[in-house]
Amino acid sequence: MTGNLILLTGEVEAQHFSTLLKTYQPDLNILQAATKEELRDVVDGLSDEELSHTRLVAFCINVIVPRDILKKLPGPSYNFHPGPPAYPGSHSAIFAYHDRAYDYGVTFHEMTEKVDEGDIISIQNFGIASCDNPAEIEVRAFTNLAKLFDEMAEDIADVSTPIKRRTSAEWTGEKRGEEEARALVEDIST
């Protein structure tokens, strides 16, 4: 049995990644969800046997995977985070812009019950000194996340083997979220 891969991402991204992943595992059954509810429906639609051969990969999506879903899967599950280890949590680009960060990056990591705390598999860093706003940082992050996915695709497609760490990097920053980001956006705008 080749297995199943659940892509927790947008439909356009899932189509691109599905094509790429099937070059490595043509028989891989790829399922897509874009919301917590869709993810639950996909997981609930698989038998226990199918679940035992299923990997979950989230890509640049603001969905927190519930603990009960993570426990149903053999794990580990993985996430492509649009920020470096110094910026865990959501809206990372806003915080980096506000901090006048010179460098930024994206992170591929294992999922745990606590957001952005799982082992980091790989990171990709890039400069942002020339970025004029958080949206420009987000575009660069998305582009670099897609490149990182492409680099990791062969390992992702092999759902029978956990993906080996390619870095010793650890999470270093303080987790921040939407309320704090909203306050910074108001501050930046004035």
Explain what you see:
- The protein has one domain: Rossmann fold.
- Helix content is 40%, strand content 19%.
- The protein is built from seven helices and six strands.
- It has helices at 11-24, 36-44, 48-51, 67-72, 92-98, 134-157, 178-189, and strands spanning 4-8, 29-33, 54-59, 78-81, 103-110, 120-127.
- A six-stranded mixed β-sheet has the order 2-1-3-4-5-6, with helices on both faces.
- α1 (11-24) runs parallel beside α6, α5 (92-98) crosses α6 (134-157) and α5 packs across α7 (178-189).
- The protein is globular and about 50 Å long.
Neighbour order of strands in the largest sheet: 2-1-3-4-5-6
Task: Count the DSSP helices.
Answer: 7
Tell me the β content. 15-25%
Q: What is the structural class? A: alpha/beta
Broad shape: globular
Report the CATH C-level class: Alpha Beta
What is the H-and-E element order?
Answer: EHEHHEHEHEEHH
